[in-house]
Fold this sequence. Notes:
single chain, alpha+beta, elongated
Amino acid sequence: MTEYTRDDMLRLWRTRAGLEPSRTDCRIETVEGIDADAYLEPAMRAWYLRLLDTADTALLPVDDVHDEIELAVCPGHEAVEGQLPPRARRLLEVRMTGWLNAAVPCTPASATRRHALALNPYSAPGPAHPLCSMDGRRIHMRPFTEDGDVLVLARAVVDPGPDRYILDDSLLSTIDECLKYEK
């Protein structure tokens, strides 16, 4: 994993777009008709956010954000809800005390099916097979008992902010594809 500043990443984008001189044995002066950086920066940021949302999580920054999530009990449902913190882009897994395993958020379609199954005592989520679903940035988890269950893990792909880019160098090759569509 490599960390780049905004300026480092912009330099990479300028080089890949052919806007930086590649020769160092001569002097070149350029006058650009447009502000290339102002053109490239929004595309660069959108490219990075798209990677955070879709790329292999092993190639991206992942952090435990459980201490940034405030939970509220859903009355009568033996469940809790919380909000994904702003810096978290994609939730990977959650775990509460009392659970034997972590829960991976399920897709909205399978969440509807699993919530319907949760009404049946024989198929309801339990400590061995907990349920986590997402509705936008809202997290819904069960089972929950008021015996002091607390969230102890919430691993997520995180956005380090607009001035930092943390990623595996293998993802830099996707810049070229993005530049093709920007022209």
